[in-house]
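When time allows, look over one protein, given below as sequence and tokens. The question is which stretches look regular and which look disordered:
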Amino acid sequence: MENRFKRVDTPQTSALPIAEAGYPFIFAAAFATLVFALLDILVPALAGLAAVFFIAFFFRDPERFVPDAAGVVVSPADGRVVKTEQLEDNPYIEGPCIKIGIFMTIFDVHVNRVPCSGRVEETRYQPGRFHSAGSDAASLKNEHQAIVLASDSEVRLCFVQVAGLIARRIICWVKPGDCVNAGERFGMICFGSRLDVYLPHDATLQVHKGEKVKAGRSVLGYLPDRGE
């Protein structure tokens, strides 16, 4: 199915736009680098400079154009699809579902985007462990933040930010009652992580395990048309 694309972001004016959450890390690394440079301690100063560039790269926040199609569900994260499976029981919404797991490495963009236009019904934070984000155990046992969304056509789905072995800070900006558009930024997870998406069992899946996806741009699937 061929899609047209639409802009959801404000046009960028910077060559390397940075997510706001990254500035404290960048400033801290830059300050340490400056101190080492003033003390003429070369090796730590060079290491600090490298850290500044890496952190800026990690927190990059590029503009994305979103597919403009009815019922489209876009990826909430950059990364690789590590799981697509049918489940008899959705852990967040009653009934069977299709689960899609997306693993982000430290080299992927970590800004998360809303997969589908609609209204936020519920946000559910759960503290937990810090298994490797690529493992099956991570989905429900790790610290995570789940968002239940009712689409514009009143089809319910859920997407879940999952902390990983290194990633220990989940950022989520949306709250119950918010109306959101597909491709809008809704949060991020710092330093490696995972996003799980739970679609209705009768959704049309468009991705497969091992596929690389881009937040806000890659199509995961299409919601079912349940109109009368």
Remarks:
- The first helix runs from residue 23 to 38.
- The first strand starts at residue 4 and ends at 7.
- The chain has two domains: 20-58, 71-222.
